[in-house]
Fold this sequence. Notes:
Number of helices: 1
Number of strands: 3
Strand order of the largest sheet: 1-2-3
Largest sheet: 3 strands, antiparallel
Order of helices and strands: EEEH
Oligomer: single chain
Amino acid sequence: MFTFPSDTIKTKNHFAVGTVWHTEGSRGIYNTEMHDKGFTCDCPAYKKCKHIKAIELNLLGDSDAST
């Protein structure tokens, strides 16, 4: 699984490191997790997926973000 660094959130020592979000996708529920070096998601995407981007937006306070 790839770790994708965030361009907007300093994840190292962030209070949410280790948090796993269960995000709904088109083919099921995926686990997205924050790590010190960025985010991982177990969806089949090989790039920074929409699940990670939605969590970043939610953490930044964008209430219109969706997965």
